[in-house]
Write a structure and sequence with these properties.
By secondary structure, the chain is mostly helical. It has 2 domains: 368 residues, no CATH class; 125 residues, no CATH class. The protein contains 22 helices and 4 strands. A two-stranded antiparallel ribbon has the order 1-2. A two-stranded antiparallel sheet has the order 3-4. The longest helix has 34 residues. The radius of gyration is 24 Å and the shape is globular. 52% of the residues are buried.
Length: 521
């Protein structure tokens, strides 16, 4: 067995594809973070390139090395040389939720990038802790929350935030965006390959960079290259200060991190199905620990195990792509290479990843669930739309901090006269603030209810409604801040629903029933 173990190559030809996969997708994620923080929110370079990016890179360095180590352990245990390491990187869904659901509203409210950053690293640290705890409670939750509810909510986030932004960015510069989009789509959606099995997505990324540079859309910028190893003392103090600021956003952070550790669980299970029997619990612990370390050094986005293990294994990848990818990403962050990438890579490159990832998220939600549960996915996708509408409308009218008020229920929205003015002018606003607060959890609640209704388990619908009432009582849903809201109409509404469900459930087979062959489509 040990003899077999010693023959495992540190790097093989199959690792080339894995390395391309890890580097390309993570670099694009980095560029999205940079574009949002530097371009949209106007954070100073010292903060973005000196703290956020190095902190994220340290987390990826550690996870890449550890997953290579896990593969070596598995190879030694089973006496095999064909073990493929788990692919890991920045969690794309969590990245978008953190950027748009936490950092962006905080930035506009606080008007202080450094204070916002302190809240963001606190959110990242809390997320890592939630991921770590997922190693204990993840299997229990997975058994009780329907997959359609979990995947449907995240699919809604992907569709409304990522897909729309991707398409809009492509058409903002069609001379660059449309050709890059076409080349990428023929690969990711059509399955085409160039000679020697080169994926069109790689050609779109590399060729798109060359094309944009050749026609003058991008440039070479070496000004940011240097040594940026963050001082953890500064980050730890900012982390402590950030906990109080980020507390109202726990209703966003906790559910997306729950999704994150469930995603890790699903992807490790997929690796097990492909023949590499990794410990789900160990992988969740690693994700959580690496995320918390990343936050301590200034990172704002959590780590996760990625999809794609089966494809990498089929391509002959081993452990080389994991450890080498981690080292290269770590060096890129610490040496300031992402300033160079940011100036060189056109927005259309990020756009095709927006679109690709969002379409995959929506498609997988339906593919991974029973056809009869599609209604649950569709309903779970709706609440994230409220989050999008709230952000766009409040940003457009520019009065979010002037005429808002907090109601006894904990709900924050415009005062009655302003809300009425919006609705009188055709703005879809009625109920939007109520669904915006805790949108992810609300999506899970509604999707779970629909699935249990389809499965003829009204008793479980009632239990879900009771859970909704408890969450509303303490401000996890329908409130802008955690608290105690015994007079909340949302609590009463959920309790009434629970009572109705339990009543109707007692009448099944007697005075309340449905035909077995019923199909809602």
């Amino acid at each position: 067995m040990l003899k077999n173990f010693t023959r495992i190559p540190l790097f093989s030809t199959g690792d080339v594809g894995g390395l391309t996969y890890i580097l390309t997708n993570n670099i694009v994620n980095y560029l999205i973070v940079i574009a949002t923080l530097s371009g949209v929110l106007a954070w100073p370079d010292e903060l973005v390139f000196g703290r956020v990016i190095p902190g994220m890179s340290i987390g990826l360095l550690l996870s890449g090395l550890y997953y290579a180590y896990m593969a070596c352990k598995l190879a030694k245990k089973e006496g095999r040389t064909d073990v493929t390491a788990l692919p890991s990187g920045v969690s794309t869904p969590a990245m978008f939720v953190i950027l748009y659901g936490v950092i962006m509203p905080l930035n506009f409210a606080l008007e202080d990038p450094y204070l916002t950053w302190s809240a963001a690293i606190a959110a990242c640290f809390i997320g890592g802790l939630v991921e770590f705890c997922g190693g204990f409670i993840g299997p229990w939750m997975k058994k009780r929350i329907p997959r359609a509810a979990l995947l449907g909510t995240v699919a809604g986030i992907g569709f409304i935030w990522m897909a729309t932004q991707g398409v809009f960015d492509v058409f903002s510069d069609p001379v660059v965006g449309l050709p890059i989009l076409l080349v990428a789509m023929v690969g990711v959606f059509g399955g085409y390959l160039f000679p020697k099995k080169i994926p069109p997505l790689v050609v779109a990324v590399v060729g798109g960079i060359v094309y944009a540079f050749a026609i003058g859309r991008t440039q070479l910028d070496f000004s940011g290259i240097g040594f940026y190893f963050p001082n953890p003392k500064d980050s730890v103090q900012a982390l402590i200060n950030g906990f109080a600021v980020v507390a109202p956003y726990l209703t966003i952070i906790i559910p997306i991190e729950i999704y994150n550790f469930v995603e890790t669980m699903d992807n490790v299970e997929a690796a097990n199905a492909a023949g590499d029997n990794y410990s789900i619990r160990e992988a969740q612990f690693v994700d959580g620990i690496c995320t918390m370390i990343s936050a301590i050094f200034g990172g704002v986005v959590p780590n996760t195990v990625w999809l794609g293990h089966a494809g990498l294994k089929k391509a002959g990848a081993g452990i080389g792509f994991s450890w080498l990818g981690g080292i290269l990403l770590g060096l890129a962050g610490v040496l300031g290479l992402f300033t160079f990438f940011s100036a060189l890579v056109p927005p259309a490159i990020c756009a095709i990843t927006y679109l690709w990832c969002s379409v995959i998220m929506v498609s997988q939600a339906f593919k991974a669930c029973d056809a009869k549960h599609y209604a649950g996915i569709a309903v779970a996708m709706i609440p994230p739309v409220a989050d999008f509408l709230f952000t766009q409308i409040t940003g457009a009218v520019g009065i979010a901090d002037i005429w808002t008020e907090t109601l006894p229920s904990g709900l924050v929205g415009y005062q009655a006269d302003v809300s009425q003015y919006l609705m009188d002018h055709g703005v879809m606003w009625n109920g939007v603030p109520a669904v915006k607060s805790g949108a992810i959890i609300i999506g899970i609640i509604l999707g779970t209810m629909v699935v249990f209704i389809i499965d003829r388990r009204l008793d479980k619908v009632g239990v879900t409604a009771l859970a909704g009432a408890a969450l509303a009582l303490f401000g996890f849903v329908h409130s802008a801040a955690l608290g105690f809201y015994p007079t909340s109409p949302f609590v009463l509404g959920y309790l009434i629903v629970a009572g109705l469900c339990f009543l109707l459930h007692t009448g099944r087979g007697k005075w309340f029933d449905a035909p077995e062959d019923f199909d809602y489509v």
